[in-house]
Specification:
The N and C termini of chain A lie far apart (40 Å). Chain A has strands at residues 3-7, 10-12, 18-25, 34-39, 45-51, 58-60, 68-73, 78-83, 92-100, 110-114, 118-122. In chain A, the strands form two sheets. In chain A, strands 2, 4, 5, 6, 9, 10 and 11 form a seven-stranded mixed beta sheet that branches. Chain A has a four-stranded antiparallel beta sheet with strand order 1-3-8-7, with no helix packed on it. With 124 residues, chain A is mostly beta strands. Chain A is built from no helices and eleven strands. Chain B contains no helices and nine strands. In chain B, strands 1, 3, 4, 7, 8 and 9 form a six-stranded mixed beta sheet that branches. A three-stranded antiparallel beta sheet of chain B has the order 2-6-5, with no helix packed on it. Chain B is globular, with a radius of gyration of 13 Å. Classes of the chains: A mainly beta (124), B mainly beta (111). The A-B interface holds A 35, 37, 44-47, 50, 59-62, 95, 100, 102, 104, 107-108, 110-117 and B 2, 33-34, 36, 38, 44-48, 51-52, 57, 89, 91, 93, 95, 97-105.
Chain lengths: 124, 111
Amino acid sequence: QVQLVESGGGVFQPGRSLRLSCAASGFTFSAYFMHWVRQAPGKGLEWVALISYDGSNKYYADSAKGRFTISRDNSKNTLYLQTNSLTVEDTAVYYCARDQESGSGTAHNWFDPWGQGTLVTVSS
Amino acid sequence: QSLLTQPPSVAGAPGQRVTISCTGSSSNIGAGYDVHWYQQLPGTAPKLLIFGNINRPSGVPDRFSGSKSGTSASLAITGLQVEDEADYYCQSYDSTLSGYVFGSGTKVTVL
């Protein structure tokens, strides 16, 4: 069955770097755009980034631009999210999610399925 | 602050009907972008509930229904059940931000 499994979370000091991974299985990974979404403790969902099938196009939320980098390795069926300088505001559960095409354009697409998430805690 | 506004909470007795509103603007829902809904049970990842404003994925009970009009959308749950206690989020796209936006989230409580 379709499965997304995130890893790489933990406790990090402010200013440290981070790379999260999302291992995909049960579908043709290279045929789908992929997203990262995060959720701060007790807060709502926040879209972070989107990457195209082959990684040639990347889109970021304003809060992520210049700070986060989304990438993928289709040979390993794996999605990544990297940042070189964490802040306490980055504390959140990070989810990867598969983009589902509406047929009406990327802006109409939705997220399905989602991984179980990986918790990133940034604290000194 | 989210561009899509939802009531923080709604409550109903088992068997009742509750609705959750998702109010946007001319740069998102009002611009014609589709609205999708997700259910997040306590301690779990979000799960797709409604896509393309009104469509249910296979396996989602027909007690859940979606609608959209103007700059708003709604999720209705009829015949409320205890297992429907969860957080619900709407999602769309915003042309000003050039990115995807989620609603502020609504906690549904079954009395």
